[in-house]
Amino acid sequence: MGSERYVDKGYKPYLAFDERVKRIAELPGVSGIELTFPGDVNAHNLNLVKSMLGSYGLQVAALGVELVCDAEWQTGSFASDDPERRQRAITLTKEGMEVAQALGVDVVSLWLGQDGFDYVFQADYARAWRSLVTGIKECAEFLPRVKLAIEYKTSEPKMMCYVNSGGKALALAQATGCENVGVNLDIGHAFIGRENPAEVASVLLSENRLFHLHLNDNYGIADDDMPVGAVHWPQLIELFYRLESLAYAGWYSLDLYPYRDDSWEACAASITFIQQVCDLVEDPSFAEELHKQQGGAPSKVLHWLYKKALMH
Amino acid sequence: MGSERYVDKGYKPYLAFDERVKRIAELPGVSGIELTFPGDVNAHNLNLVKSMLGSYGLQVAALGVELVCDAEWQTGSFASDDPERRQRAITLTKEGMEVAQALGVDVVSLWLGQDGFDYVFQADYARAWRSLVTGIKECAEFLPRVKLAIEYKTSEPKMMCYVNSGGKALALAQATGCENVGVNLDIGHAFIGRENPAEVASVLLSENRLFHLHLNDNYGIADDDMPVGAVHWPQLIELFYRLESLAYAGWYSLDLYPYRDDSWEACAASITFIQQVCDLVEDPSFAEELHKQQGGAPSKVLHWLYKKALMH
Amino acid sequence: MGSERYVDKGYKPYLAFDERVKRIAELPGVSGIELTFPGDVNAHNLNLVKSMLGSYGLQVAALGVELVCDAEWQTGSFASDDPERRQRAITLTKEGMEVAQALGVDVVSLWLGQDGFDYVFQADYARAWRSLVTGIKECAEFLPRVKLAIEYKTSEPKMMCYVNSGGKALALAQATGCENVGVNLDIGHAFIGRENPAEVASVLLSENRLFHLHLNDNYGIADDDMPVGAVHWPQLIELFYRLESLAYAGWYSLDLYPYRDDSWEACAASITFIQQVCDLVEDPSFAEELHKQQGGAPSKVLHWLYKKALMH
Amino acid sequence: MGSERYVDKGYKPYLAFDERVKRIAELPGVSGIELTFPGDVNAHNLNLVKSMLGSYGLQVAALGVELVCDAEWQTGSFASDDPERRQRAITLTKEGMEVAQALGVDVVSLWLGQDGFDYVFQADYARAWRSLVTGIKECAEFLPRVKLAIEYKTSEPKMMCYVNSGGKALALAQATGCENVGVNLDIGHAFIGRENPAEVASVLLSENRLFHLHLNDNYGIADDDMPVGAVHWPQLIELFYRLESLAYAGWYSLDLYPYRDDSWEACAASITFIQQVCDLVEDPSFAEELHKQQGGAPSKVLHWLYKKALMH
Fold first, then answer.
1. Does the global pTM surpass 0.90?
2. A28 — contact with chain C (CB < 8 Å)?
3. DSSP B40
């Protein structure tokens, strides 16, 4: 549908869940889908969803607990200053983890976009941080075999979010002391946070905390959620190279928001981009030639990359 | 209501037009309201609206032609590549100008947020620019006594907008060759465009092209539309000082979007801020003391401002 | 040499002018060089420089008047509040224009990086704007056959610069009323100003005001002056396509600042990138295929571009 | 002196160390100074410096190990891919810690501005991260009573730095497993990283990892190092309030870079700002009134702050 602040009903008709699944299944190269709990799937429709996805040959890549997109979360979820709200977030997350387990899904994603603040003096930051750590720890210990992937983002919907960088997400995961707390890296959120996705991914992989990936692109300021490759080719080539070298074993999930674009076409373009880049970087010659360029003038690597990756 | 991408129905109930007017009239220090055409006022309800506003003692500060907030404008308005759409924008603007004239309103505001592009290779920029110039010129010449105030903004809803800076808006106004084309300076748009509002206002006043002002505040990245004073005190003090010195004769209009805040309170806080700052800078001692500080070390002026404007 | 705030002597030895020219001449694909006045060339060494460049087969692409890189300009040049300083800027620019004419150079570039302010209340913006307009007009009228190309930039060295966007530069050129005042578009400055270089170039070409180009790349925040192609491939492909379609007739000038990189290699990599992209977009099939993609879903053009321009 | 990329010799004469100390001692309200090792103080001049500072009544607030501002560090320090360089950084840091101990200084600050990268494919991020963790851990264990304060920054001098956010610095400290590794929060670096300094400070204090503070201000994009209060009054008022409430016990250190401004005046203005804000927020009425405002409409707190802190 694509709601936004300006055109609240979006620019195109709303698609029901089963219609969306059907269209996703028609995308070449897609073998899974990311679902939200409890909107898309829950304890009641679990088997129905399972069999529907099975009929399309789709796996569930990850389950996202919905803690943002309803006015009920406007004071926050895990970090709300309202203890009942915090408890509700914990309970819902545990239920989501159980559904994930029942579905055979490894990764539950938590995007805490309402845990933040709009103005100065609105929030008690130290208390909020402790609530985040203890609440997520409680969930993680509830089902240690389910991985919790925290999705960080600088801003939105709250003007300022607590879990606002790759580093903050890593620090939060470490502070819980739980090995099953890690990060869902949305590479667009990395770009708007002035990070290089390949760098964040490498650090997280090196700490065994990269559990999931959201792929999209933007102009470096706002979370445009444009097709992969709309802006950052060298950065994306490097990202997929690092993921391959460091043996990332999770999913490549598209998180696009094509306001005025056709959703299916935006996904198809993204998939083409990803496949072409993977073909390029997974060829053994790529790593071999790269290593030969490194160590000299830094721009020699760029020069090589231009010849290797840019059609001419 | 406060729709957004995440919570499409917003965080609070929708208020009907007359209810909104009633609440605005209750704000201390408010003597006018900005209306949209044809949503709030049009040829059919003109007299009704006039008499309702009159009963509240409210004037119409400016009339904004609605060319953004409906899916029909998704290819743009004045700069759309669809000639029918461009014609529709011109016709609607002329009708809005007539309604403004009938209401005794000097300024018609044009925000062209759909005139832009999302991806590379999507738009024909040179053609779009010529369409902007000729379309706005046609409207301006239609009723030369009505002032057209172009509101610029870097981005949103299109990822990239054509009229994206104070300079671009000024260049567009100049290119029409019409004296009744100028700028609606939204100071939040100035901040996200890395401009200093006081500087833009001064240049536009010096060119007789500052026709209207939208006041709000933000963190310098996105168009947060927070209460005036949420972030930039020295910049706002300077802005109101320059407006006063350069004899700006237009309205101070609040353009807030308090997603999760009470709209009335957000306006009331903004009005307090503006009044306090105006009291400060309009006192003759302010200009006198300021001039004594200037010419020495640049930070002497800051030092003076801290003592003058910050409570201690 | 590459001075910076942190390592004031830079990271590598200083190269004398003739040594730099020699190395530049060794770059494949280079036929001209941009000089500064009065540092590199002036009335005294004019013939010497001419014959030296001739011996290397190099033309002069543009002459930049040096109005920034000396402490004498710290209050500004054309817009300084010191009338003697403003006069000095005008005189120096006129002298530079005469040298340009003597050299047979069409374009004199003016970068006014000290014309701006650091703090609020430091500058008189309205007066500064009028000084810019009248000073540049005086120079332009002095030698109407020499083109003055204003180089805009958001920031640096002053924290905030007056001529801070493509729009502002265009508005300034228009305000002089002189046809020989236009813009030197540094595409890195466009990126940090949240502009799309292809869009700015198209608007300026459509107004006959694009006189010169500085090419480089950056991460979208600071003026990194990295090799062309370090970040923005689709945006650069579009830029060169638009320049070609709109028949830009000026130079492609590299403006890099390879702090910790080898300057020659950084230029060589950039030249490879530019040549490969030009080969791509100048092939008639590019425009033909592009036109076939346009008009449908916006991402279809991206999809096509991925297949056309990304090696796989 | 104030070197920069454009005016490499800066805009004013260089001051020798003892002259700088003398001028700093003349600033009202200053009781300490931050020194660099080995530039300002080292094993050889230790007693001399001690007695000179004593004669001015100045303590040493913190000791910064110089690992950035010399071409020798261009491949990085703790995270360099050159093992000898990494060893040199470790050795120098240990020596600095010993000098700090001899001076009775608690905090050694480490700013790792060369540990990062300019281009894609230039660095091995996973290896670099491990080098950071192990190198800093080795130093921290060497003298556990000396606190190591990591200063983070998004960018500069490397285009992209590894320790680029408050979260990353916290994660790094946690990863060492050492209680004496924490953070030097430069609030200007927080602003350019889209963080709210009060929030970062609160989280770090809650984790016992806020060891030092650098105070300055900027426009939110680049590290302008302007006087405190040049831009962000509400954010700074909140920062000092949180530091007071959470019992921060470290120093308030000014880190300004007044290129074209008088250094002494820039410091004096900053000190006035800090003192006035501290007077305001340390008054018991501030906290009392604040608590009464919280819990209602978020802008009620802003409204109260305007009346409380803005002169009228």
1. yes
2. no
3. T
